[in-house]
Design a protein that fits this description.
Layout lengths: L2 H24 L2 H8 L15 H7 L1 H13 L5 H10 L1 H21 L1 H28 L18 H34 L2 H15 L4 H12 L1 H13 L4 H30 L4 H28 L1
Helix pairs in contact: 1-4, 1-8, 3-4, 3-6, 5-7, 5-13, 6-7, 8-12, 9-10, 10-11, 10-12, 11-12, 12-13
């Protein structure tokens, strides 16, 4: 893994996200999006956060930049953030489906992909249902924005310049918090700590009835689920039962999020945006719940 390249890409991406978020704010485009999506409040989302699900379809980083700014300004509370981010997971899943699952995974694994999508999106629907029920009770009686027709867009040079400067300042503050944690992650990877964690899983995987090919899939998926999908194709070629292949796919994805993505990508990103307590809770809600669902479902499938 080229860590310098990963760091540069991460910083470039979040800098773009901050600049875009601040520009949307300065030009009043974010207010316009909020006005157009204000009726979402009735579903169970804070009025100030109604643009977030739509922004998730474009760029989750922009959505988080916008949400973190509202949190810092005291316009929302952490629970409002948790509700909208969890509710936006369905938007993120839709993006994955049309960008990757259908054009790439479906031709590779065929009907297995459809079962994988169906079982995965079931969790997203259940999660959205629960958090929106909480949100509907929380925001019951909240009035919708009545100034939809009074919003004036500001595409002046001054507005774009102000958005650029504020975005660069915000990305600098992000870098000051993100960089130390990123360096710690690099150290753990370079020192082989993560690899030793993977080796320690082998005896446990054997107890789930996985043979050498299944274990190879899981250990590969912990570092790269996309690379492991090629092994899933080999498993299908050897006539492995569908539930066995699906079990490996879910277990691989769950362990990937838990042992890799959660602390290599998600934790450093969140820590640069949110206070520590919010970061840890959001990490559990976003990565922890998803991992637990994937691992539980994998165990059920592998034991069938």
């Amino acid at each position: 893994m080229d860590f310098l390249k990963l760091y540069i890409i991460s910083m470039a991406s979040i800098t773009f996200g901050y600049i875009l978020a601040e520009t949307l704010s300065e030009t009043n485009l974010i207010k316009l999006i909020g006005a157009k999506t204000s009726k979402i409040t009735k579903l169970g989302i804070h009025p100030a956060l109604t643009p977030v699900p739509a922004l998730y379809l474009v760029s989750p980083r922009v959505a988080h930049a916008n949400a973190s700014a509202l949190l810092k300004e005291g316009l929302i509370e952490p629970i409002d953030l948790y509700i909208v981010i969890l509710a936006s997971n369905l938007s993120l899943r839709v993006m994955y489906i049309y960008r990757y699952y259908l054009p790439v995974l479906l031709p590779l694994l065929g009907i297995v992909t459809l079962y994988f999508i169906g079982l995965r999106i079931l969790f997203d629907f259940l999660l959205v249902f629960v958090v929106l029920m909480i949100g509907r009770r929380r925001y019951k009686g909240v009035k919708l924005n009545g100034e939809n027709n009074k919003i004036k867009l500001n595409f002046s040079r001054k507005a774009f310049k102000k958005g650029l400067i504020k975005g660069l300042k915000a990305s600098l503050n992000f870098a000051l918090r993100f960089t130390p944690l990123f360096l710690l992650v690099v150290f753990m990877l370079k020192s082989g700590i993560s690899y030793k964690m993977t080796l320690a899983l082998s005896p446990i995987l054997g107890k789930l009835g996985l043979d050498s090919l299944g274990i190879t899939y899981i250990t590969t998926a912990i570092f790269s689920p996309r690379a492991a999908y090629g092994i899933a194709k080999v498993m299908l070629g050897y006539n492995y039962p569908m539930q066995k292949v699906l079990g490996c796919m879910f277990l691989g994805n769950g362990l990937f999020v838990l042992l890799n993505e959660s602390w290599v990508r998600i934790l450093p990103f969140y820590s640069g945006l949110y206070p520590r307590e919010v970061t840890l809770r959001l990490l559990f809600l976003q990565a922890g719940l998803s991992s637990l669902y994937n691992i539980f479902l994998a165990i059920v499938l592998l034991k069938l």
